[in-house]
TrEMBL record:
This is NitT/TauT family transport system ATP-binding protein. Keywords: ATP-binding, Nucleotide-binding, Transport. It comes from the Bacteria. Residues 4-230 form the ABC transporter domain. GO terms for molecular function: ATP binding; ATP hydrolysis activity. The keyword Thylakoid does not apply. The keyword Lipoprotein does not apply.
Length: 230
């Protein structure tokens, strides 16, 4: 079934002479459980597109639907992971409290929130560090915590904007494998932007290739999973 439907989506920055159309009339769908990667040249509008889908920027025109329901404003069934892990975690909260944080707006009891956060930390291999603070962890581990926090709310759609661009190559490989494993286990639908074609082909079930600005979808490729990186 279709999880995400983006239809004629545009976003324009500024007004009048300063107006700049960063995303122009893009349409595509993502099936439930799919890990779809978006690649394209720098400046073609990838971040703007993700932010508009996530409700962080108002679309100038077009619509976004999640499992058939049109999204108006901030979708409650969606989680976002950005490149900049160092600014995405609350420094005054422990790792466990960071992961639990988005659950406080749901209907869960305190005990259920705690259990769900613990299971998300476990899924990313960090069950031992719940009591530490983010700044006590390496960059790669902090980004793991961000992924755990995104997964803890069991989102219908996980949006990731260059999530591994700020970590070293070895950590990136680990995090890519981790994401693939957890995504397959939990059946999460993921839309991930990267400028790294290699990463998109390794990670994705599907790669959408955007052209230079104003971006059009120039290819929509099914890609298989290799047995291993070596
Ligand atoms: P990337 O290529 O990694 O997506 P960009 O250089 O396009 O990064 O943008 C980096 C940051 O600067 C983004 O947060 C973006 O919103 C902001 N930015 C980019 N271009 C402009 C601009 N013309 N005016 C204001 N902010 C901008
Ligand atoms: P990408 O993520 O593909 O690098 P972006 O979505 O960051 O592209 O940017 C698309 C275009 O919009 C670029 O030309 C960029 O300079 C411009 N842009 C991005 N953020 C802003 C902003 N806050 N204000 C004005 N222009 C922006």
């Amino acid at each position: 079934s279709t999880m995400l439907e983006v239809s004629g989506l545009s976003h324009r920055y500024g007004t009048g002479d300063q107006a700049h159309t960063a995303v122009n009339e893009l349409s595509f769908t993502v099936e439930a459980g799919q890990l779809a990667c978006i690649v394209g040249p720098s400046g073609c509008g990838k971040s703007t597109l993700l932010r508009a889908i996530a409700g962080l920027l108002p679309p100038t025109s077009g619509t976004v639907s999640l499992h058939g329901d049109r999204v108006d404003g901030v979708p409650d069934d969606l989680a976002v992971v950005f490149q900049d892990y160092s600014r995405s975690l609350f420094p005054w909260l422990t790792v466990a409290k960071n992961v639990e944080f988005p659950l406080r707006w749901g209907k869960l009891s305190k005990a259920e929130r705690r259990a769900q956060a613990a299971s998300a930390l476990d899924a990313v291999g960090l069950s031992g560090v719940g009591g530490k603070f983010p700044w006590q962890l390496s960059g790669g581990m902090q980004q793991r915590v961000s992924i755990a926090r995104a997964l803890a709310s069991r989102p219908a759609l996980l949006i990731m904007d260059e999530p591994f661009a700020s970590v070293d190559a070895q950590t990136r490989f680990e995090l890519e494998d981790l994401l693939r494993r957890v995504q397959a286990q939990q059946g999460t639908t993921v839309l991930l932007v990267t400028h790294d074609i290699d990463e998109s082909v390794y990670l994705g079930d599907r790669v959408l290739v955007l052209s230079k600005s104003p971006a059009r979808i120039v290819a929509d490729l099914p890609v298989g999973l290799p047995a291993s990186r070596d």
